[in-house]
Amino acid sequence: MELTRIKSLCDYIEGCDRCGKCKFIPSERIKSWRFSSGCPAISRYNFHIYSGGGKQNLALSLLDKRIDEISDSVLEIIYRCQMCGSCDVSCKYTKDIEPLEVIQQLRITCIENGFLNPTLMPVIDGLRKEDNMMQALKADRGKWAEGLEVKDITREKAEVYYHAGCRYCFDEELWSAARSAVNLLKKAGVDVGIAGKEEACCGGRAYEMGYEGELTKYAEHNTELLKVAGVKTVVTPCADCYYAFKVLYDKIGKKLPVEVLHITEYLARLINEGKLRPSRSIPMTVTYHDPCNLGRKGEPYIHWEGVRTREPTEPTLHVPPKEFRRGTYGIYEPPRDVLRSIPGLRLAEMERIKEYAWCCGAGGGVKDLYPEFAIWSAQERITEAEATGAEAIVTACPWCKRNFTDAISQNGNNLKVYDVVELLNEATS
Amino acid sequence: MALKKEVYQALEDIVGPENISEEPAVLDSYAHSWGEEYIVGPDFRWMPRFEAVLLPGNTQEVQAIVKVCNRWRIKLKAHSVGYGPFMCSLKEGCIGLDMRRMNRILEINEKGMYAVIEPYVTGAQLHAELMKRGLATGMIGPGANTSAFPIVPASGEGWPENAYANTHRNQLGLEWVLPTGEVLRTGSLGAGAGWFCSEGPGPSVRGLAAGAGAAMGGVGVFTKAGVKLYHWPGPKLLPVAGLSPSYYLKEQPRFGFWFFTVPSYEKAADAGNKIGQSEIAIILQKGMGWKIAADSGRNMDEVLANFREISAQMKGRVGGWIVLIGADTEKEFRYKQKVLMQIVKDVDGELLPFLEDNPDVKARFLSRWTRCSSCDRECRRVGGGRLSAFMTQDSIDHQMNVAKVSTELKKELIKARRIWDDGGDQALGNFGEHGRVGHVEQIAMAHATDEGFAALRDYGQKSVKLMSDPKYKITGYPPLGWTMAERQLLDDAYVNWATKIKKVIDPHNVSESSFYTSG
């Protein structure tokens, strides 16, 4: 097996001492036994290898050639993980290592060495053929916006490009949220346009599944699209797209030449500037779910190039010093600010919030590969939401919304699910 | 040596296919931990693989597994959170029991001041639930992320033991699956009277269960325990604020954190005894500059810069004591603080300016020490190798002598540039039961390389030789030896007796006991 990628992270892999902190939120942040776990994979499957630390063990085992190939069951272990990054931020509370990056490179290594997950192949084939992760026809991509009377940036100039993302474009049940966002932008007088059927995937989900080439391809495609359209800002209601545009493109050296904002950031700005005035009361108690890719993983990428010293008389240092991404600078306040601006709406927080939010369960290919695990993870979050006394769980990502909705539908529950934009749209109508 | 198909099937029938694995990658995740390089020698990084790992969900399943092991003469080794090489097996042909699914707090009895827990409940989980009820208990040395189960920890030492006792002394009724597969219920539990007491009727078996330094899976599987609870003077919820990794407590009225240095080890002993006897502290911890530095930086660069500053401020004095005080009333807090300051004055102590001049930094320590969430920051932050030696449990006077002697040995290795130059004395340990007894271990760190580990092994072996030399007057119970040979060298009688006891309760020798006896 070609293991160059993993070998390059060997120092970090060896830095895992099996303290187990990756399984929980940080000790000081624990408020109860019930909601103290952080990682869905270890919580569901229990063997240590499912934890962030366990994946570091797996990488070490490969490097030491104790395992010389990825068996089907090991592939399953690698992919029974939402790539949510909970292990990463909990670990980095005390350590200077990179657990999530090791997991990411493990997945890319699997793909590069031909260890492919057959269930994902139709998804990736669909992406390559139709530019979306939904196994749908590219020609249908713009249907969600029919009748909206919004500019098409492939034909007319607009200042702001609204990128709906694969899930919002093709999941008809969720179209109201995607359309609400456009209505709000128009209501605020924003010069906004969409790309209709010419919109393409961000490549972020494929990257998390281990398909690095797809991220590069779509980074280049989207950069070109934005350049030609001449937009100044790209706004997306999808946390996954936000993560790809803002973080991953920068990570691979293809930072977008325009401002990247999540819709909640833009809406909070419009409310703050007085361009949107939510006036209609929504008398409801809600709780807000931080999407992983908008929250802990959504903070800006920090490049570092340098060496790690090995002076015999001193601990290892990063030269120059390395700043670790700990999830602290994700997009946490804008969605909350939008909710707080709605008259009558009461926000009740869950125990695990912001960088320590429990994942909705849909990420990293889990929704496609292990739907039962995706629903199990969502149900855990729904239980936590219910404990706040909220009538609804509100999120800012179509993948979270879909998975919560599916879990509630399967398990039977009265909790409502909203996207932030839907509530704001109702409050401003 | 893989398990025979029929054995695997018998085990799978007990826990279900989801809860057993013999996948090599899964097994490897139980064959690697910090510290094994000192045990398995030059071929470091990996301990023997288990033949299979199981995740039992209840006592009945554990019992059934143990019976299968007896029937087929297969060794087994159980662990809770698995932080440390002791979770691994040193013998081939052993199965592992990861107790992760047994993670419930079964009862918190506020009136009877006890809780009943399973092995995988962590210190942080239990503390969070107890705080809400104005209660607390001990927390083991490795920190809040590790098991709250009172007889799991080596030697029982733990952070708040000054007020809340050594963790192994907090064990009340115990449910114990013996190596034969029988379930033994000890203390009041055995008499059908509940969990409230660990002793009687009849002779206590607490010593048999825990040994001197924890049984390390060597005498069967502990499945439930009663835990003694104490009064908690703090808030119901930790008021944590700030950004990772620099959390601090927004406010914690009537709680305070101090670190002070002293001119000599004799003065350190004097101070520790006085603080203990005055019964003012929740935590009484042998302090060290590295510990303060490691907990104050965002990364190793900041940690090292802070360490240099702290070392300069310590001026070669002895890293005396870290003290956490809590009180129910302002008056009580003022009194305790006044007593502490008088003791500091009496022993020519100096509070560390690094903390006293930076209330924000001090507030971070208040957060970590209240939840006992530090530990691996101090020793493993950069993935270097770390070895603790001179691990003893004894009186404060004895322990200060250990700190003194061990520092000299360490300095030789630092001078030879074989380990990191951390100034020498980085002895750490918590002292319990108002200064009656305490733990000290002298940590040394080096890079995770062949040379680094060779230096640390050398340090460990020299420490054992030195401890067995009467002229250094180091006694106490056998430390948590890194190898059985080291343990035997230090206290042959203890190991021999433990081995005899083990033979009685484990006639087929199925409970893998390499970290307990040589049996």
Give a description of the structure.
The complex is a heterodimer of chains A (429) and B (519). Chain A has helices spanning 4-7, 10-14, 40-45, 52-63, 72-79, 86-91, 99-112, 121-130, 166-170, 175-187, 204-208, 212-229, 239-251, 263-272, 333-340, 366-369, 371-387, 398-411, 420-428; strands spanning 151-152, 160-162, 192-194, 233-236, 259-262, 284-288, 307-308, 318-319, 345-347, 392-395, 416-419. With 429 residues, chain A is of the alpha/beta class. Among the domains of chain A are: 1-116, no CATH class; 119-272, 3-Layer(aba) Sandwich (Rossmann fold). In chain A, the strands form three sheets. A five-stranded parallel β-sheet of chain A has the order 1-3-2-4-5. In chain A, helix 18 (398-411) links the parallel strand 10 and strand 11 (416-419). In chain A, helix 10 (175-187) packs across helix 19, helix 14 (263-272) packs across helix 15 and helix 17 (371-387) crosses helix 18 (398-411). Chain A is globular, with a radius of gyration of 21 Å. The N and C termini of chain A lie far apart (58 Å). Chain B folds into three domains: 105-231, Uridine Diphospho-n-acetylenolpyruvylglucosamine Reductase, domain 3; 240-377, 2-Layer Sandwich (Alpha-Beta Plaits); 383-482, 2-Layer Sandwich (Alpha-Beta Plaits). Chain B is built from 19 helices and 20 strands. Chain B has helices at 5-15, 24-28, 37-40, 59-72, 123-131, 161-164, 187-190, 206-210, 265-278, 289-294, 300-314, 330-346, 353-356, 359-371, 376-380, 396-415, 450-467, 484-490, 492-505; strands at residues 20-21, 52-54, 75-79, 94-98, 105-109, 114-117, 135-136, 171-177, 183-185, 221-228, 230-231, 240-241, 248-249, 255-262, 283-286, 318-326, 350-351, 385-394, 427-432, 437-446. Chain B has a seven-stranded antiparallel β-sheet, with helices on both faces. A five-stranded antiparallel β-sheet of chain B has the order 5-6-10-8-9. Chain B has a four-stranded mixed β-sheet with strand order 1-2-4-3, covered by helices on one side. In chain B, a hairpin with a 4-residue loop joins strand 5 and strand 6. The longest helix of chain B is centred in the C-terminal third of the chain and has 20 residues, at 396-415. The model of chain B has no long low-confidence stretch (mean pLDDT 90). Chains A and B meet through helix 2, helix 4 and helix 5 of A and helix 2, helix 5, helix 11, helix 14 and helix 15 of B.
